[in-house]
Amino acid sequence: MFSLIELQQQSGQTILNFCKEHRITLSNFNYWLRKYRKNLQPSSGFIAITPSFPASPLRVLYPNGVAIELSHPDVSLISTLVRIG
Does the predicted model carry a pTM greater than 0.70? Predict the structure, then answer.
């Protein structure tokens, strides 16, 4: 269905006319259009990382110049430091 959505966008046709021409119900097309748009949305901005050991210390730098260096950081501590900043 994603390829049909892209085809409609490139066709210049209205969604209604495209659906009629391709014998797709408007509700079905709109359902897949929502999925297509959601699929294109950027993620939350976070990515999974896997540290390699031995890891070097983690340094958190704040805009005011304060730097915190952590030799054994854990996720909850990092989360707290990010929220504070």
Answer: no
